[in-house]
Write a structure and sequence with these properties.
The chain is an alpha/beta fold and about 170 residues long. It is built from 7 helices and 5 strands; from the N terminus they run αβαβαβααβαβα.
């Protein structure tokens, strides 16, 4: 049963055209995620680009403008403080805009955790995503971080609240 549900979801997700690009900000000082997204966004000139997290406004806008992407397409959200809040701070906005599917962009090493959290938070609102990993030299994050943040995402879905890494005393 679970495998058939997963198969159905995969087929549906592959047939759904994303309506926006969601970028998990907070990459390194070299802004790899933003640079990658600027190139990617040129292929989809009508999609809004939502960047959640620590991407600096001026540098980010400059990267997109240099790539020939209209900066009016950018929505920079600085409320997020971690990967869980990357999703929780924008999911209501996505839902209000009627967005049912997004391209999810983050670093390859970070994608496993992002997918777990996205399945829970975006999935709770019926929003699908297509993962688009930014190449990375780092190895994938430990599974324990995906489990921890998956639990935090479930807590948010059920209560509207989540604990932070700091309150969990995780280093």
């Amino acid at each position: 049963m679970l495998l058939s549900l997963w198969g159905y979801k995969e087929i549906r997700n592959n047939l759904t055209q994303p309506q926006a690009i969601l970028v998990l900000g907070g990459s390194t000082k070299r802004l790899e995620r933003e640079k990658f997204t600027a190139g990617f966004a040129r292929k989809y000139p009508n999609l809004p680009i939502l960047i959640s997290g620590g991407s600096p406004n001026g540098a980010t806008k400059k990267i997109f403008a240099k790539a020939g992407v209209d900066v009016k397409r950018l929505y920079l959200d600085h409320e997020a403080v971690d990967t869980v809040s990357n999703f929780t701070t924008l999911v209501d906005d996505l839902e209000r805009r009627g967005i049912r599917s997004v391209y999810l962009i983050t670093s390859k090493y970070h994608m496993g955790r992002a997918k777990v959290i996205g399945e829970i938070i975006l999935g709770s609102r019926g929003i699908n995503f297509k993962a688009v990993p930014v190449p990375s030299r780092k190895q994938s994050e430990p599974v324990a971080t995906s489990i921890r943040d998956g639990a935090r995402a479930l807590l948010w879905v059920t209560t509207g609240y989540t604990v932070t890494k700091k309150s969990l005393k995780i280093k």
